[in-house]
Specification:
mainly alpha, 2 helices
Length: about 80
């Protein structure tokens, strides 16, 4: 199974919908807020990793640096 940035976007909007549930109160709301913070933290790291891979691709595509090698861990 492969997750995509589109999947991440869907998860974030689903989390927003859960937070918008006006019937959530008290402990259930606190639990959902805690879950939202965890989701946001993981999402931020996924986005940062995606940006790093995109930067590596841009660097590899730079025609002025024809001999530039991308480190293996940064290959998309």
């Amino acid at each position: 199974m492969r997750n995509t940035m589109g999947d991440l976007n869907n998860h974030l909007f689903a989390q927003l919908e859960r937070l918008s549930d006006e019937e959530l109160t008290g402990e259930k709301l606190a639990d959902e807020i805690s879950r939202a913070k965890a989701v946001t933290s993981v999402a931020s790291q996924i986005i940062a990793n995606g940006s790093l891979v995109l930067d590596a691709i841009k660097l590899a595509d730079d025609k002025m640096n024809a001999n530039t090698a991308i480190p293996k861990m940064l290959e998309g």
